[in-house]
């Protein structure tokens, strides 16, 4: 059998080589067309201030040769390997099995992180950052992953939460624990406000309007100087206290360190913040998982699968969509309040479109609707981004390349399968090919 | 004396200058299988979409008689019509393909289950009231899966089922909303003769269970054998209304189906 296959492969070889050469030549031509203006010609400011055109044909040649051989190798390898078997189902199954072990493992690691040897200020700050994005990803997942409503303006709710906390705390002196639910309610309210005009919109149109909404919030924050401080932001936001015990270096009995008889350390507050965001993220996760098994959560998923069928079954589409927007926005608002108390300073600059894009990328790369996938994606995207800090300007290149790679290897995200919420027998994962992506 | 379940009175639907349904009146009786037939473009699906709330009729009235009261369907918003007791299936099947057969049937019981969750809080915390309601919903879904012969596929995604099973699942899903009137848009389309036979059996069982049926169908064999009463539409008008034997003998029906000119 294997001899036959080898013989066929041998017979195929000349045609594979010819096709590969042709393909590679075309690729090289396209590369040349692209790189000649982009790399080949460069303007520099000369010594006397005049513009000089530098020509870098050597670099162009190197890039074109890389493109040629890269394509040649890829096509030849594909040709010799033959038609790839669709292995995604098996891989999904394997990932799901790994996920069952991975989730408790990651949770244990997250819980133990502040006490692991070698964990310093930097690691904790990075952990807080990653967990913030995990929480935002899980929050957005309710809207995008479950209900299938493409929301490009999620950062608006993050901003609403942050400004709600900042304003309530600085003007009225309310405590963090009182402000946290208020910030969530404010964000949910804005989520419903956004929901109303976009109820009838689908897909691309929904994405554009939510994108505009995100920008409107940011522009209002910049221009409403009397309330928000405009571009200067809000400073002096109260830092969180441990249920009334401030984190202070003085070591007096009414501070955290003094009350518990610990050596005062600036790390206490960071560790507290770390556990706070971990608890908030886990709350988001718990609510999402429970909601999926609820009639409302099932209705969200049904809405993603087929809106018209939902209507024929008597599901109120307006309320169902609004509840998804409101709940997703609420968790964004919680995360925003946390962000404000952690930074102590917020300004509109923290709430640009790129934040929405990153959160959406985390949801899409992780696999829409998958909790563990989103956590991994956030860890890779935010943590990985930090790992490559030494690469300076190539950091974005590595980042973009990694995103493209994930999408090529796993087009429906790291975990594209869907676990049924209820079963008569055993729950079997549903392959990504059946699961709808939602059209808004 | 049997009572009517659905009354259509001068039902008219205009799209811009086009009159798709022109002053159609008919009555479907309780406990009957009523069929609406007609050549392509006769306005059958438009009538259906008016009844099930996907279109709002330009003129005319639709009344559903339930528990001694008449519900004006043409005034209700789309999702209220299903709650009033009208369920439907679609000409091109509209299941939730990424959800299992069982989940499809649970989504259909959304309103009953939502009422039991107590604004979501009871369900979120897993209160006993909600658990009871969910168990009852699963039992009802199991009963319909058994009735449609899909119990073995309960945990498979709906999108992975063969075509005939998807048709039956859609009917089961509609029945899970506890309708008094089941509207089927070409339920036998794409089924082989054996599957059509099974379908007819299922529909008779549903009728005998107390749910009236209104169906659109092209397959004359299925219609003639199954229906208690047939309404024939052509170019948006009602041209005949009666028992299968009466309709079969009606010269206007024969003319419409053979495509003769109206004056012939």
Provide an overview of this structure.
The complex is a heterodimer of chains A (about 450) and B (about 260). Chain A contains 16 helices and 2 strands. Chain A is mainly alpha-helical. Chain A folds into 2 domains: about 80 residues, no CATH class; about 325 residues, ABC transporter involved in vitamin B12 uptake, BtuC (Orthogonal Bundle). In chain A, helix 4 runs antiparallel to helix 13, helix 4 packs across helix 15 and helix 6 runs antiparallel to helix 13. Chain A is globular. Chain A starts with a helix and ends in a 31-residue tail after the last helix. The mean pLDDT of chain A is about 85. Chain B has 2 domains: about 160 residues, P-loop containing nucleotide triphosphate hydrolases (Rossmann fold), CATH 3.40.50; about 80 residues, Rossmann fold, CATH 3.40.50. The model of chain B has no long low-confidence stretch (mean pLDDT about 85). With about 260 residues, chain B is an alpha/beta fold. In chain B, helix 3 crosses helix 6 and helix 3 packs parallel to helix 7. Chain B has a 6-stranded mixed β-sheet, sandwiched between helices. A 4-stranded antiparallel β-sheet of chain B has the order 2-1-4-5, covered by helices on one side. The chains are: A mainly alpha (about 450), B alpha/beta (about 260). At the A-B interface, helix 10, helix 11 and helix 12 of A face helix 2, helix 3 and helix 4 of B.
């Amino acid at each position: 059998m294997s001899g036959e296959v080898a013989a066929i492969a041998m017979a195929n070889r000349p045609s594979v080589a010819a096709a590969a050469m042709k393909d590679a030549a075309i690729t090289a031509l396209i590369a040349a067309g692209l790189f000649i203006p982009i790399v080949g010609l460069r303007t520099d400011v000369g010594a006397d201030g005049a513009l000089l055109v530098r020509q870098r044909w050597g670099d162009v040649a190197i890039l074109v040769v890389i493109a040629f051989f890269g394509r040649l190798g890829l096509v030849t390898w594909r040709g010799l390997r033959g038609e790839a078997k669709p292995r995604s189902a098996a891989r999904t199954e394997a990932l799901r099995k790994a996920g069952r072990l991975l989730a408790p493992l990651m949770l244990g690691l997250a819980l133990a992180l502040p006490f692991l040897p070698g964990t310093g200020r930097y690691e904790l700050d990075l952990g807080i950052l990653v967990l913030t994005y995990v929480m935002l990803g899980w929050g957005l997942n309710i809207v995008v992953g479950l209900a299938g409503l493409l929301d490009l303006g999620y950062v608006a709710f993050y901003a609403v939460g942050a400004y709600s906390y900042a304003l309530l705390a600085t003007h009225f002196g309310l405590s963090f624990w009182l402000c946290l639910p208020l910030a969530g309610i404010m964000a949910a309210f804005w989520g419903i406000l956004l929901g109303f005009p976009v109820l009838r919109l689908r897909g691309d149109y929904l994405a554009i309007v939510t994108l505009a909404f995100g920008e409107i919030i940011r522009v209002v924050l910049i221009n409403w100087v009397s309330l928000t401080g405009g571009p200067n932001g809000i400073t002096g936001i109260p830092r969180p206290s441990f249920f009334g015990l401030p984190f202070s270096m003085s070591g007096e009995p009414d501070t955290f360190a003094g009350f518990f008889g610990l050596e005062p350390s600036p790390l206490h507050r960071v560790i507290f913040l770390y556990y706070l965001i971990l608890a908030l993220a886990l709350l988001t996760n718990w609510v999402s998982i429970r909601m999926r098994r609820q009639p409302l959560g099932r209705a969200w998923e049904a809405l993603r699968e087929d809106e018209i069928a939902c209507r024929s079954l008597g599901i109120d589409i307006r309320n169902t969509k609004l509840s998804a927007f409101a709940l997703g926005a609420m968790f964004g608002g919680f995360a925003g309040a946390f962000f404000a108390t952690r930074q102590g300073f917020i300004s509109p600059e923290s709430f640009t479109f790129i934040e929405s894009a990153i959160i959406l990328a985390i949801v899409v790369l992780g696999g829409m609707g998958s909790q563990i996938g989103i956590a991994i994606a956030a860890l890779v995207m935010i943590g990985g981004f930090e790992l490559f800090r030494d690469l300076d300007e190539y950091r974005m290149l590595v980042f973009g390349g990694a995103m493209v790679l994930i999408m090529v290897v796993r087009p429906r995200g790291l975990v594209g399968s869907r676990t049924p919420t209820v079963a008569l027998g055993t729950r079997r994962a549903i392959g990504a090919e059946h699961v709808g992506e939602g059209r808004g | 004396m049997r009572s009517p379940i659905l009354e259509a009175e001068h039902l008219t639907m205009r799209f811009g200058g086009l009159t798709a349904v022109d002053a159609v009146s008919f009555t479907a009786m309780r406990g009957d299988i009523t069929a609406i037939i007609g050549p392509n473009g006769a306005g059958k699906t438009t009538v259906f979409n008016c009844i099930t709330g996907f279109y709002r009729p330009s003129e005319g009235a639709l009344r559903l008689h339930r528990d001694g009261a008449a519900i004006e369907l043409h005034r209700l918003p789309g999702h209220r019509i299903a709650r009033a007791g009208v369920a439907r299936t679609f000409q091109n099947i509209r299941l939730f393909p990424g959800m299992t057969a069982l989940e499809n049937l649970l989504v259909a019981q959304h309103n009953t289950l939502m009422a039991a969750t107590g604004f979501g809080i009871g369900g979120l915390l897993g209160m006993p009231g909600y658990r009871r309601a969910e168990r009852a919903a699963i039992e009802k879904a199991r009963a319909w899966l058994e009735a449609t012969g899909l119990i073995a596929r309960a945990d498979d995604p709906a999108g992975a089922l063969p075509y005939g099973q998807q048709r039956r699942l859609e009917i089961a899903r509609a029945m899970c909303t506890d309708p008094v009137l089941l509207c089927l848009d070409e339920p036998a389309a794409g089924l082989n003769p054996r599957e059509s036979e099974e379908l007819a059996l299922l529909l008779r069982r549903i009728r005998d269970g107390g749910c009236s049926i209104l169906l659109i169908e092209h397959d004359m064999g299925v219609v003639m054998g199954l229906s208690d009463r047939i309404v024939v539409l052509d170019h948006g008008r009602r041209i005949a209304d009666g028992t299968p034997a009466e309709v079969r003998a009606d010269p206007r029906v024969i003319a419409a189906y053979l495509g003769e000119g109206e004056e012939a």
